[in-house]
Amino acid sequence: MSRTDEEEVEQLKNLWQDYGKPVIAGVVITLVAVFGYKAYKQNQYETSAAASQLYQSLLDASASAAQGQSLTEQQKSTVQHVAETLKADYSGSRYAAYAMLQQARVQVQSNDLDGARASLQWVVDQNTNQETELLARTRLARVMLGQSADNAQAALDVLAAASSEAGFVATIEAVRGDALLAKGDRDSARAAYQKALDAAQANGEARPLLQFKLDDLAVKTTEG
């Protein structure tokens, strides 16, 4: 082997020493990151699928409640068990929030307003998507008013943090009107009911109860 050849071999050894190991290390790190990401995505998928299946079992158990019918004790127990499982094991998923909304519905129908309030408050505290939070806030305010008229201001505070999305204005303002009326602020209640009715009509919705509440306030004001 010539001197030149020996020098080239030595140079290759030096290059390998200087760059070969870092290059391989970089490749290894990249492969670990890729496979780690795939494993993470697979775990996310499996977690979502498991939560979805649990939530479906809750819907099956609470189907009667959605139609306004009373649940059996076994159905109530199933709803509670599944909702609490989703809350504990999948708290970051949307299914946990949906499950707690369903549990609150069942609790209201069972006249367990304290339980419903706790369930709805949990949903509000999770900072889920905007639609779910608005739904939870309006229901929470209703439950609080159902517990006691003394909760009127607290109910208004819950609604104050609800953004006025177009599709929810009628519902939010209707509940706000109920809270204001519970406080004895009839003028503000009337304004809220009117805003709710206007929003409902703009969306093509029929809200006869809102019109009744407005008419009732008008009659009492005239009588007064």
Outline, from the CA principal axes? elongated
What number of structural domains do the residues give? Answer: 2
Class from secondary-structure proportions: mainly alpha
Strand content: under 5%
**Major sheet:** none
Output the helix-strand order: HHHHHHHHHH
**First-residue to last-residue Cα separation:** 117 Å
Enumerate the spans where pLDDT stays under 50 for 5 or more consecutive residues: 25-46
**Rg, Å, rounded:** 29 Å
**What is the mean pLDDT?**
79
**Number of separate strands:** 0
Number of helices: 10
Q: What is the share of helical residues?
A: over 70%
Structural write-up:
- This protein has 224 residues and is mainly α.
- It folds into 2 domains: 14-128; 131-224, Alpha Horseshoe (Serine Threonine Protein Phosphatase 5, Tetratricopeptide repeat), CATH 1.25.40.
- It contains 10 helices and no strands.
- It has helices at 3-61, 63-66, 73-89, 94-109, 113-125, 130-147, 152-160, 169-182, 186-202, 208-223.
- It is elongated.
- The N and C termini lie far apart (117 Å).
- Residues 25-46 have low confidence and may be disordered.
